[in-house]
Write a structure and sequence with these properties.
By secondary structure, the chain is an alpha/beta fold. The chain has one domain (2-392): Anaerobic Ribonucleotide-triphosphate Reductase Large Chain, CATH 3.20.70.20. It is 39% helix and 17% strand. It contains twelve helices and twelve strands. It has helices at 17-37, 52-55, 61-77, 95-104, 124-137, 183-192, 196-224, 246-252, 263-275, 295-303, 308-315, 333-350; strands at 2-10, 42-49, 82-88, 109-114, 116-117, 121-123, 150-154, 175-181, 228-233, 321-328, 354-361, 399-400. A nine-stranded mixed β-sheet has the order 9-8-1-2-3-4-7-11-10. Strands 5-6-12 form a three-stranded antiparallel β-sheet. Strand 5 (116-117) and strand 6 form a beta hairpin. It is globular and about 55 Å long. The two termini are 39 Å apart.
Length: 408
C-alpha cells in the first residue's frame, strides 16, 4: 500500500490566500516525511483549488492563462507536484472552451468539466462541451497525453483527493485528504482467502488497520498546520504490475477473464466490501479500473475480453467511471458525447459520482497497440468507441432532472 497523493485544498480567492498556501505546502511536506517514516510511501503531494471559472467569472482567455500560469508556478514553488483547477461549470458555459488552451499552456495542471449541476441535473450542452474538450486536446501531443489531465465529471462533490476530479468547495478553508494506492491489498487478501466472506474480511482488516495508523498522523497534521482533514479515498488504485492489479484481484475471486460473465458480480462484491470500511471518507471509495494503469485490464484489452461497454457496466455497481481509456485518434466529438451522455445519465439516475477520462490517441485505430513509454501505464489495445446513437431531444440544449431511483 502506498499513498498516491496527499491532496491539499485551497481557495486562491479567499482571505489569507498566500499564507494558507504556504501552510498547506508545509503540511504536505511534513505529512510526506511522517507517512514515509510510518511505512506508507508517499508518491506525490498535490494541490486542488476552487473551480477555476469562479476565479475568473468573465472566462477571458488571457486572464485564464495568466491565472493558471501564476498558480501553477506558486504551487510548484510551495513543494506540490501537481495542481488541479477543478471543473468548468454549466453556469459558466464559456469555461469549457478554455480548457484545451490551458492544457497546452501548462505541464502540471489538471482540469475537469462538469456535465451535471445540483440545481438542474443532467446538462446536455455541458456533455457536448466536454466531448469537444477531449477531441481538441487529443492532438496537443502526438501520444494524446494531454487528456490524461482532463476528466468529464458527473455528480462529483468537492473534496475528493484523486486527480483530475479533485477540487475545493467554494469558500472552503484549508483542507487535505489522502488518495491511497491499495490494489495490492486486494490482491494479497483475495489470494489468501478461502471464501468470498473470508476475502471480504481479510481486505477490510487490512484497510481498516491502515486507516487507523494513518489517521493518527492526520490528526497531528491538522492540529499543527490548521486545516480540516476530509478523509481517505481507498478506491483500490492500481499500478501496472500484476501484484498491484485490481483487475487481477477481481479475477482471483473467480472470473476467468475480466469482461466475461461474472465480472459484474466481482465488481459488486469489491464495491460492497469498501462500503463496509470504518474510515472517514472523501472522494469515491469505489473500484478504480483505469485501463492503461492496470496490467490485467491492459491484457484483457489485448485478448479482446474487455470493451468499453463492460467498463460502463461495472460503473453501475461501483466506483469511478471510465478511466484512462485509449480510443481511436479520429474519435469524433459526436461519438465521444454519446458515451459521455451515458456516463452522466448513469451517475444522476443512481445518485453517485462518475468520471470519464478518455484518451483518443492520434494516428491509432481501434485494435491498434498502444506504445506509451510511461512507467505508470501498461500498454494494451485501443478500444472501439461505439458510434453516437443520440439524436433529436438527446442532443438538445436542455437540462434534464433525473431523480435517483427510489428503493422500497
Amino acid at each position: 500500500m502506498k499513498i498516491r497523493s496527499i491532496t491539499c485544498f485551497y481557495d486562491p480567492g479567499g482571505r489569507d490566500a498566500d499564507r494558507n498556501l504556504g501552510r498547506l505546502g508545509r503540511l504536505a511536506a511534513a505529512g510526506k516525511e511522517r507517512f514515509n517514516a510510518a511505512g506508507f510511501s508517499v508518491q506525490t503531494t498535490r494541490l486542488a483549488t476552487t473551480a477555476f471559472p469562479e476565479l475568473i467569472p468573465s472566462c477571458c482567455d488571457e486572464s485564464a492563462v495568466n491565472l493558471v500560469s501564476t498558480l501553477e508556478t506558486a504551487a510548484l514553488a510551495s513543494g506540490f507536484d501537481y495542481i488541479s483547477f477543478g471543473p468548468a461549470l454549466p453556469a459558466f458555459p464559456d469555461s469549457y472552451r478554455l480548457i484545451p488552451a490551458l492544457l497546452a499552456a501548462s505541464k502540471a495542471a489538471f482540469f475537469s468539466g462538469s456535465m451535471t449541476s445540483p440545481q438542474h441535473g443532467l446538462h446536455l450542452p455541458a456533455v457536448r462541451a466536454c466531448a469537444e474538450v477531449i477531441a481538441q486536446a487529443a492532438p496537443i501531443s502526438p501520444d494524446g497525453f494531454a487528456n490524461l489531465r482532463f476528466a468529464a465529471m458527473a455528480n462529483v462533490s468537492p473534496g475528493g483527493p484523486f486527480f483530475p476530479a479533485a477540487y475545493h468547495a467554494s469558500g472552503g478553508g484549508p483542507a487535505f485528504a489522502l488518495a491511497v494506492e491499495s490494489a495490492d491489498e486486494a490482491v494479497a487478501a483475495f489470494q489468501q482467502a478461502s471464501s468470498l466472506a473470508d476475502a471480504r474480511r481479510l481486505l477490510l482488516d487490512r484497510l481498516n488497520e491502515a486507516a487507523e495508523k494513518m489517521e493518527e498522523i492526520t490528526r497531528q497534521l491538522a492540529l499543527e498546520y490548521p486545516a480540516d482533514f476530509l478523509g481517505f479515498d481507498f478506491s483500490l488504485a492500481p499500478f501496472p504490475v500484476p501484484e498491484v492489479s485490481l483487475g487481477g484481484a477481481m479475477e482471483t475471486l473467480g472470473v476467468r477473464a475480466l469482461g466475461l460473465s461474472g465480472s459484474l458480480a466481482a465488481a459488486a462484491f469489491v464495491a460492497d466490501a469498501l462500503d463496509r470500511g470504518r474510515w472517514k471518507r472523501a472522494g469515491f471509495n469505489g473500484l478504480m479500473l483505469p485501463v492503461l494503469e492496470d496490467s490485467t485490464l491492459a491484457a484483457r484489452s489485448l485478448d479482446g475480453s474487455l470493451n468499453i461497454r463492460d467498463l460502463l457496466m461495472f460503473s453501475s455497481v461501483c466506483g469511478t467511471g471510465l478511466d484512462t481509456v485509449p480510443l481511436p485518434g479520429g474519435s469524433s466529438p459526436e461519438d465521444l458525447a454519446g458515451l459521455l451522455l451515458d456516463v452522466a445519465a448513469l451517475a444522476v439516475r443512481l445518485g453517485k459520482p462518475l468520471t470519464a477520462r478518455l484518451m483518443p490517441i492520434p494516428g491509432k485505430a481501434a485494435g491498434d497497440l498502444t506504445e506509451f513509454q510511461f512507467e505508470y501505464f501498461a500498454n494494451g489495445r485501443v478500444l472501439a468507441l461505439p458510434p453516437a446513437g443520440a439524436v433529436r431531444f438527446l442532443v438538445g440544449d436542455e437540462s434534464v432532472r433525473l431523480n435517483p431511483r427510489l428503493t422500497y
